[in-house]
Every structure is written in C-alpha cells, then in structure tokens.
Amino acid sequence: MHELSLCQALLEQVETITLQHGAQRVVRILLRIGPLSGVEPELLRHAYPLVAAGTVAESAELVIEPTEIRVHCRRCGAETPATPRYLLCGECGAWETQLISGDELLLAHLELETADSAP
C-alpha cells in the first residue's frame, strides 16, 4: 500500500514546517486529492494514525478535500470540468485538452499551535 509511504512523506514535510514555525503541535492538516492522483483517500486516512503516532501531528485532524478534474481545450480555449474516463472539453466536445487539475496530492493548509497560541 503506497499510501503508507505517502503518509510518511507527508509527515516529514509537516514536521519540517512545524519546526520552521516553532510550533508545539499540529492541530489540523488539509490535503487536496484529485481523482487522477492514484491515491485512495480512505487508505490514506487509515494509514495516517499509524504514521502520526508519536509525532507532533499525532492528535491532528486530517481533512481530505477532493478536487475536480478540469481541462483546458486547445481547440476552443474553454476551461471545463471533465470526467476521469473522458478528458473531453465540456464546451465543444474536443479531445485536444490539457489537464489543469485532478491529478494532485497537495498539502493545502496546516493549522499549528505555537506557545503563543496555546490555551
């Protein structure tokens, strides 16, 4: 399950950011995952507690937001949503499209607790 190694890489990045900001712990992690990313959000959600145990993110809330697939049409110039199986332009139906979003795994937001912000 490659979601476990993705979680490990995510936690390394989170710990680096936490250290850079002098935070005590991570409160919330927001990930954006596209349907073409090759990542199964539920498997990632299940792997997270195993990897986060004993880290500054152990008690952090993991929030996963799905992103939509969007394409740019090289024929008509439109930017439209698309489906995973058919990356067709939603305006003219052309297949000459470029993927704009939908394949990302993005650490979008971290909510940290610092000594100043602790209750």
UniProtKB/TrEMBL annotation:
Q: What is the lineage of its organism?
A: Bacteria, Pseudomonadati, Pseudomonadota, Gammaproteobacteria, Chromatiales
GO molecular function terms noted in the UniProt entry: nickel cation binding; zinc ion binding
- List GO BP terms, alphabetically: protein maturation
- Key word Transmembrane present: no
Q: Is Methyltransferase one of the keywords UniProt gives this record?
A: no
Q: What does this protein do?
A: Involved in the maturation of [NiFe] hydrogenases. Required for nickel insertion into the metal center of the hydrogenase.
Family to which the UniProt record says this protein belongs:
Belongs to the HypA/HybF family.
Record-listed Ni(2+) binding positions: 2
Q: What is this protein called?
A: Hydrogenase maturation factor HypA
Q: InterPro entries, from UniProt?
A: Hydgase_Ni_incorp_HypA/HybF_CS, HypA/HybF
Give me the gene this protein comes from. hypA
Keywords, in A-Z order:
Metal-binding, Nickel, Zinc
Q: Name the positions where Zn(2+) binds.
A: 73, 76, 89, 92
Q: Which organism is it from?
A: Caldichromatium japonicum
